[in-house]
Design brief:
The chain has one domain. Helix content is 72%, strand content 0%. It is built from 3 helices and no strands. The longest helix is centred in the first third of the chain and has 32 residues.
Length: 131
């Protein structure tokens, strides 16, 4: 996120990029941890399935960081959307119209990205081992 007074394409793609990075961190944490613990465990001999508490903590930290960054992006998008005198539907070919449109589009992408981050983190809540 770039703290500026003008909305641009960088601010538009910040929240989806954070969502994608969160997905990458969550997937690699869970897959890597389960691959290592499954290789070390003797699952076929009747031992218990490995616990994924460490992977859960990594996913929790990544989720908190991702939601915090998206919240900052949302705050900036809200300011871009509400600045200026142009009201929606932002179809005027002016600087204020473009700023309002980019701010509103960024705001919508921030909402979608928060939902995506939460849905990526939900399996860590419900799944307790590496089955």
């Amino acid at each position: 996120m770039i703290a500026s007074t003008r909305a641009n394409l960088i601010t538009l793609v910040t929240a989806p990029t954070v969502w994608a990075l969160h997905f990458l961190v969550s997937y690699t944490a869970a897959a890597g941890y389960c691959a290592k613990t499954m290789a070390d465990a003797r699952v076929m001999t009747g031992a218990a399935w490995p616990d994924i508490t460490i992977a859960r903590l990594v996913i929790l930290v990544a989720t908190v960081v991702a939601v915090a960054i998206i919240a900052l992006c949302t705050r900036q998008a809200w300011g871009h959307w509400r600045s200026g005198d142009v009201d929606p539907p932002f179809d005027e070919p002016s600087f204020e119209g473009r700023q309002g449109f980019l701010g509103f589009a960024t705001l919508l992408l921030c909402g979608l990205s928060v939902v995506g981050v939460i849905f990526v983190a939900l399996p860590a809540v419900f799944i307790g081992d590496c089955r």
